[in-house]
């Protein structure tokens, strides 16, 4: 009879469930405590420099951030392999994005590109349940990419000319990386972040999208949102809401860094992405976490954005930590910049739309696609986005129908706002009359109300949506407007659906006298109740873009206005049509009288709108070489709409500038920002070009508000100059661009210091003299700030006026 052991078993070794012999309790490695792991780490780890910018390669040159990240990761991989070389168990970690095996049996990356996991492998593996059902026993689980395959991403140059970029060439190495890894997107970010060339930025985005079309089409939409520094269209009101507190707690948790050390890093680098990279660069884990995917990152950000309730901040922090833990190298830098929505890679809207058009056109017609096809595609995509500004629908339409049929697959839709048409600014009445056409041209003059521009959508079910000029949904802000439209017989029976445009203006409820924009800003912004409203408003309708299922965008303004007036009924002090007169250039006295009336009514001036389109002419009297369209053109600034604004002071011009930095003042202003550095914004590159410092026009309340918003230690300021700032000046803190200020000034001058509009007029830039703060433009986003081209136009007008003044002076004396 076999000899019994003390544990009641036989003399033969005890068997595990899988039939293998159990390891004796006394054998080496059978029981490893935390002391074992930390002892080995202390013996095997080499010191890691937490200052990657000072690392040197063998040739003595500085190592780039991305290269350093790969170097550190390779060091960690080697340490991890050495630590676990005696462990023969395979740990299978399943994740919603990956099925990854970490093989500790000594199989190196050079021995196989991938590892196939069969049913027998699963039976001996330790599994970690991450919410994924086990794979079917009859199928292979996955093809597992190794570090060598991920390393192939670093060889891709996305910024080359599209005809020279062959996505198929890279597909062989990357085809196992599905879903598309976030590392691929961050590699693109590092390349476009390193250049100021708009051509290279467009090339990078174009080639990246072309590669995704072959590798993983489902990731294109997520990649586009992540590249454009947003997670959804503005009218969905999706906001990440990740403040400095959440981010700092997450970084301390993930990296183990102390609060003083974190602050020290921030003081040193100034950019929160660089701080996160530095804080996590030397963090080591016993088991590599699953790789991030593009779609997985975007989906997690959506979870953060929709988190509500008392536990939402805790949930957001955990989701941020999850992403940071799984992020490696440059992924951490760009993840963190995405959290604060300050990616700064130059992928502005026009750039992204151009890249989408080119990517799908090159894919359809090949690398030798004709230039005219590319230009036509770009125009189609831009126009479609202007009528339907949602990348989800645009990309879905491109994938299904291609560029040429995009307008059919992604049409103008109720409750999705269209981008507003814009008017050109004129200096005075004389310039307006010159621009508008010949003496027989008919146009309408309308009051330019000092309120909030609004776009109203109404469908056959009675649903009403109200959008701002930059597409924010503000239906909850104006329940009184909704009530007027629904309850006061404003909408006539023949009107079943519509999109109209108007100005919401504060008014006196009894007299109907117009109030200022400042009084309108005193209303609540969200979930306003009618009973709590203290500022009465009136909607002044001035255009109609959609009626009873038909688009009116291509209809002349004269017809659109007739349809507007025949589809609605005015209600005193609640709903009205914009005050207007019809005129020709011969009616100068009537126009001047109407202009003065608008000023007396507390309006900003008048809008002049062409009633019918004018064809291009080349006669000596008109000298018009291009047509003037009276149709509604979303997102375009046309000379068929002209602004004639009143003078605020001796200067008739104003600029909408973005504050990008500040210095502390002197005396009683020593604790406040004064002066403030202001900039224009280049819409093609997204770069902010410094134009002046401003220190006048601020109230005490404004000083306090600005100091609180841009206080030291908040994520709204940084010591390090952002890559998208052009300024030779160094303020005490740079500010994250997020506001637009209206600034008055005396004149525009050439400047040897400021870079604004440099190269447009001369080799020198432009600045403004005697800038004075007027107000915050809460109705404008930073992408609507004044451009360098507009600043240059003001300078040229000023020079023309100066020449005319000299001629008048000459005639007086000679």
From TrEMBL:
CDD domains: Adenylation_DNA_ligase_I_Euk, OBF_DNA_ligase_I. GO terms for cellular component: nucleus. Residues 18-30 have a biased composition (Polar residues). Residues 48-59 have a biased composition (Basic and acidic residues). Gene3D superfamilies: 3.30.1490.70, DNA ligase, ATP-dependent, N-terminal domain, DNA ligase/mRNA capping enzyme, Nucleic acid-binding proteins. GO terms for biological process: DNA biosynthetic process; DNA recombination; DNA repair; lagging strand elongation. It is found in: Nucleus. The keyword Signal does not apply. Residues 1-59 are annotated as: Disordered. NCBIfam families: dnl1 (TIGR00574). This is DNA ligase. It comes from Lipomyces starkeyi NRRL Y-11557.
């Amino acid at each position: 009879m076999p000899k019994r052991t003390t544990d009641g078993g036989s003399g033969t070794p005890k068997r595990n469930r899988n039939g293998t012999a159990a390891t004796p309790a006394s054998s080496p490695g059978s029981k490893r405590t935390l002391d074992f792991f930390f002892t080995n780490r202390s013996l095997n780890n080499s010191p890691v420099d937490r200052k990657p910018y000072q690392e040197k390669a063998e040739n003595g040159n500085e190592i780039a951030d991305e290269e350093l990240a790969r170097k550190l990761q390779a060091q960690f991989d080697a340490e991890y392999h050495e630590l676990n070389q005696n462990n023969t168990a395979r740990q299978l970690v399943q994740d919603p994005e990956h099925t990854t095996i970490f093989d500790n049996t000594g199989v190196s990356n050079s021995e196989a590109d991938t590892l196939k996991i069969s049913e027998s492998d699963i039976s001996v593996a330790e599994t970690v349940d991450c919410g994924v059902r086990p794979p079917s026993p009859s199928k292979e689980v996955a093809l597992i990419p190794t570090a060598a395959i991920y390393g192939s991403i670093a060889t891709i140059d996305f910024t080359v000319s599209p005809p020279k970029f062959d996505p198929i060439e890279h597909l062989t190495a990357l085809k196992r990386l599905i879903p598309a890894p976030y590392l691929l997107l961050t590699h693109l970010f590092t390349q476009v972040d390193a250049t100021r060339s708009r051509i290279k930025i467009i090339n990078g985005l174009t080639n990246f999208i072309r590669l995704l079309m072959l590798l993983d089409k489902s990731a294109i939409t997520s990649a586009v949102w992540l590249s454009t520094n947003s997670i959804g269209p503005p009218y969905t009101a999706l906001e990440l809401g990740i403040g400095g507190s959440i981010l700092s707690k997450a970084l301390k948790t993930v990296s183990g860094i102390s609060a003083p050390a974190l602050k020290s890093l921030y003081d040193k680098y100034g950019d929160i992405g660089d701080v996160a990279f530095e804080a996590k660069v030397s963090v080591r884990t016993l088991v590599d976490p699953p790789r991030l995917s593009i779609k997985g990152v975007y989906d997690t950000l959506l979870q953060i954005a929709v988190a509500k309730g008392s536990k939402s901040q805790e949930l957001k922090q955990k989701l941020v930590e999850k992403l940071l833990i799984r992020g490696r190298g440059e992924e951490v830098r760009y993840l963190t910049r995405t959290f604060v929505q300050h990616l700064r890679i130059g992928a502005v809207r026009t750039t992204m739309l151009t890249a989408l058009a080119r990517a799908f056109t090159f894919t359809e017609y090949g690398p030798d696609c004709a230039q005219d096809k590319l230009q036509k595609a770009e125009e189609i995509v831009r126009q479609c986005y202007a009528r339907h500004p949602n990348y989800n629908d645009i990309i879905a339409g491109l994938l299904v129908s291609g560029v040429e049929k995009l307008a059919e697959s992604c049409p103008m839709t109720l409750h999705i706002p269209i981008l507003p048409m814009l008017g050109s600014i004129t200096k005075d009445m004389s310039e307006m009359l010159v621009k508008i056409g010949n003496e027989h041209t008919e146009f309408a003059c309308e009051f330019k109300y000092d309120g909030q521009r609004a776009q109203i959508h109404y469908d056959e079910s009675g649903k009403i949506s109200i959008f701002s000029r930059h597409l924010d949904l503000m239906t909850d802000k104006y329940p009184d407007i909704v009530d007027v439209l629904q309850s006061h017989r404003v909408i006539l029976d023949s009107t079943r659906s519509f999109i109209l445009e108007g100005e919401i203006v504060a008014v006196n409820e009894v007299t109907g006298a117009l109030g200022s924009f400042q009084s309108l800003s005193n209303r609540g912004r969200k979930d306003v109740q009618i009973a709590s409203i203290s500022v009465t408003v009136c909607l002044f309708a001035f255009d109609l873009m959609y009626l009873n299922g038909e688009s009116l965008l291509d209809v002349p303004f004269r017809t659109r206005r007739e349809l507007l007036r025949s589809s609605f009924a005015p209600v005193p002090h609640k709903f009205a049509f914009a005050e207007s007169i019809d005129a020709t250039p011969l009616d100068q006295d009537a126009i001047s009288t109407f202009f003065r009336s608008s000023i007396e009514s507390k309006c900003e001036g008048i809008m002049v709108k062409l009633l019918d389109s004018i064809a291009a002419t080349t006669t000596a009297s008109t000298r018009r070489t291009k047509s003037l369209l009276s149709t509604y053109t979303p997102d375009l600034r046309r000379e068929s709409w002209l602004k004639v604004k009143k003078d605020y002071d001796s200067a008739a011009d104003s600029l909408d500038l973005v504050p990008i930095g500040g210095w502390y003042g002197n005396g009683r202003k020593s604790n406040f920002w004064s002066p403030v550095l202001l900039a224009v914004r280049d819409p093609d590159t997204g770069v902010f070009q410094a134009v002046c410092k401003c220190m006048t026009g601020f109230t005490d309340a404004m000083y306090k508000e600005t100091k609180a918003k841009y206080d030291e230690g908040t994520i709204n300021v940084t010591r390090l100059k952002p890559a998208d700032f052009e300024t030779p000046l160094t303020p005490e803190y740079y500010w994250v661009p997020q506001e637009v200020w209206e600034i008055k000034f005396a004149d525009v001058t050439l400047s040897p210091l400021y870079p604004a509009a440099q190269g447009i007029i001369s080799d020198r830039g432009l600045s403004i003299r005697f800038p004075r703060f007027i107000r915050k433009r809460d109705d404008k986003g930073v992408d609507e700030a004044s451009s360098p081209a507009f600043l240059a136009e003001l300078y040229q007008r000023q020079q023309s006026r100066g020449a005319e003044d000299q001629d008048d002076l000459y005639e007086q004396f000679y």
